Amino acid sequence: MLKNSTLLLFLILFTLGLSFQAQSGKAVPSHFEDGVSKVVKLYPNPATTKINFEILHSNDKVYEIIVYNFLGKKMDHLKNVGVRTVLNLDNYYSGIYIYQLIDNKGNVVESGKFNVVK
Known about the structure:
Pfam families: Por_Secre_tail (PF18962)
Number of strands: 9
Protein name: Secretion system C-terminal sorting domain-containing protein
Strand content: 35-45%
Strand order of the largest sheet: 6-5-8-9
Keywords: Signal
């Protein structure tokens, strides 16, 4: 009985939170996630044949993108990434992939995931 009441309480609070967020009318820009400004935008996601990486705040910086499969195997290493880069997905299987955006000092600036559907 305790599990059911806890679940019911959670659902009610979650629903109230969603309705409050919808009523606030504040739209969050697409390059913000959890209050943090995103540096890279990728599309389409999910992807089938190619995925586009777009650097939003380049400031003439040069980046690298490393792509791993979900098991941690390195799939691609894109060097000297400009404002827009296209990644060909011919050698990719369906699944989830992780990317890391790395600056010229070797620091991970951002990481994220994308889905390949074939």
